[in-house]
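Journal club prep, notes for RB
We'll compare a predicted complex against what the paper describes. Inputs for the magnesium ion case:
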Amino acid sequence: MQRRSLLKGAMAMPLAYSLPAIARQVRGHEVAKLEVFRLPVNRRGDWLVLRLHTSDGLVGHGDASHSGNDAATVAALKQLLSLLQGESIFEVERFRAAARKSPGSDSAAAVVAASALEHCLWDLAGQALGVPTHVLFGEALRPSVDLYANINRSADPRTPAGFAAMAEKAVTAGFSAIKLAPFDAMPANLDRRTAVQPLIDQGVACAAAVRQAIGPHHKLLIDAHSRFTRSEGEALAKRLAPLDLFWLEEVTPAEPIEDLVAINRSTVISTAGGESVRYVSGFYDYIRSGAVDIAMPDIKACGGLLELKKIAAIAEGAGMRVSPHGPASPVGGVAAAHVAATLPNFDILEHAFGEVPWRADLTVPPEPIQGGKLLLSTRSGLGISLNEGLLASRATAV
Ligand SMILES: [Mg+2]
């Protein structure tokens, strides 16, 4: 079938076509080559961005940042590429299934690598069919997605005044929702509880300073980064209640899940979490247990764009909102936005604010953020390419 007539038919009867059916009819578009670029960002980690090339000259983009082990991510990318080379870009489910069966697929690095390659496939599929990627996920319900500014990676010093100053910058830049994780100085090991009270007091003071800086009409989100025991967490929620939080995130670790459930039941504050939970299978128990009110799958860590769509569907069934987690490069932000825009139960998307001044220029066109919203592209695929000049000056091919 000619591409034009296929597209015409596909637009008229979208449910009649699965991606593998399209793959059989649209010839070409086989995966040929992968490029991986590392861009130094800050003490919290680098960005790893991908370009996946097809035999006929299309270029798809993905984000493989923040697995915690970039060297292992790069090794996994090279291993997983063998599952794609010479294969159709449309066979996304086949790739996902093969990646999950490949050696070492349980590591965080392998999941991030497979997810990033999957982002590339959806970018390529949109380009090959001449539609924005969000069309492949059911069409956008909104022309832009609301963002919150995570100032935790840029606030310096990490004092009430330091957090307040960065929050004011984010509000000036147009953001009306601000997140910080003011308890990062607390020990991650929950068995070491000596001298934590001054650190809790300092964190609460940082949260209060940001609330005062942004005023009562902007949203304040606090991430506890799992630094609390259940009893400490219940006490924390009571102390934070007067700050009128939009949400309180991950007070205790994801395991045992009963601690999150207990805190969620005990507080009037909305709770959020799930950034490290993988796949529909992981979120099924997380959502069913009532661990949080708002699910936070990350398109790099949960399995990819299609996994986000599926996780959002089970959350929708449970009456829950979805707010994709995502300190990410602009590539990851744009990719997440394409799916987020299609979700009936989407709430707000994360944006790491103020990490580097050249952030928006990584992509062409520059990252489309205006007034605290990420504007959805109407170009085919994800609608971005990488800025060659910026790659030449800042990136290392790995
Ligand atoms: Mg978090």
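Talking point for the session: Confidence is low (pLDDT under 50) at residues 1-15.
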